[in-house]
Design brief:
- By secondary structure, the protein is of the alpha/beta class.
- The protein is built from 8 helices and 9 strands.
- The strands form 2 sheets. It has a 7-stranded parallel sheet, with helices on both faces.
- Strand 4 (125-130), helix 5 and strand 5 (174-183) form a beta-alpha-beta unit.
- The protein is globular and about 50 Å long.
Length: 292
């Protein structure tokens, strides 16, 4: 008997829906210039499309709500009469109107998750916003990688989101109809690295942590869908915060906005979450998808 090698043919068939997807532009200065040229209201005037009243009465838990974008999101939700539960690791939020503050919550620590559930006292959550993040100050290249910082960013920005979501889900505090928002970054798009990192710096830890967070979000969307829980992966846009201050020289060139505007963009996308859009990676700046 003659044994012949088996040849397998793999036929790649493009989805008929792929051509219908309009992705956001990876070239941020070009994207911002085009938005101004075309007077893109969605990108330049979020108030013209955003209906914050839809968030009234919703119980929303925001991690990392004591500063930066998390603080801005919490304040916007309060303004829309949502019941906001703020979590923070150390310093408490310095603003009023919160439904509840749970401090001492470190998203890298399992015992903190137990404390979070205990302190919620059975309170079900309508919207979970996994916002807690970390961005090392120094810029990384292969000449000066900081491995400890890289691991820290991945643990906080990616694994931390799973810890929080898992803790609430297993405590039955996320029910059918709940929404989970993964605040990540366009920096997690592998497809966009050639454009956005051309010439460096390369910031290995930041980009790896955001790519990992995107993967976590996609998997969560698949696993939680049968339970009637929606998950959205969101790039909040380029916001002027302490975390992005090392890039302040390009804030105006690339259309960076005050965190209060970024918060409205995020809240607008939360309102648009639906089964049809479940698990998509959305640029809150213009509402378009970002490729993985």
């Amino acid at each position: 008997r003659i044994h012949r090698p088996r040849i397998f043919c793999i036929l790649a068939v493009a989805s008929p829906h792929m051509s219908e997807i309009k992705f956001s532009d990876p070239d941020q200065p070009q994207r911002f210039a085009y938005q101004k040229k075309t007077n893109d209201k969605r990108a330049l005037d979020i108030d013209s499309v955003y209906d914050g009243e839809k968030l009234s009465g919703k119980v929303v838990l925001v991690t990392g709500a004591n500063r930066g974008l998390g603080e801005a999101i919490a304040k916007e939700l309060i303004a829309q009469k949502a019941k906001v539960i703020a979590t923070c690791r150390s310093s408490k939020p310095k603003f009023e109107g919160l439904h509840k503050v749970i401090d001492g919550i470190d998203v890298t620590d399992k015992k903190s998750m137990e404390k979070l559930v205990k302190d919620l006292e059975g309170q079900e959550i309508d919207i979970l916003i996994n916002n807690a993040g970390y961005f090392m100050v120094e810029k990384e290249t292969i000449d000066n990688p900081d491995f400890d910082e890289e691991i820290k960013m991945i643990d906080i920005c990616a694994v931390g989101q799973i810890r929080v979501t898992s803790a609430l889900f297993n405590a039955k505090l996320l029910k059918k109809g709940s929404k989970v928002v993964q605040i990540t970054s366009q920096g997690g798009s592998i497809a966009w690295r050639t454009t956005q990192n051309a010439g460096g710096p390369f910031d290995y830890g930041h980009h790896m942590s955001k790519a990992a967070a995107n993967m976590a979000g996609k998997l969560l969307a698949i696993e939680l869908e049968p339970h009637g829980i929606l998950v959205q992966i969101m790039h909040p846009g380029f916001n002027k915060t302490d975390m992005t201050k090392k890039y302040e020289k390009i804030w105006e060139i690339e259309g960076a906005v005050d965190a209060s505007i970024g918060a409205k963009r995020v809240c607008h996308e939360i309102n648009l979450m639906s089964p049809k859009r479940n698990g998509l990676f959305i640029n809150c700046e213009d509402g378009l998808q970002i490729p993985w």
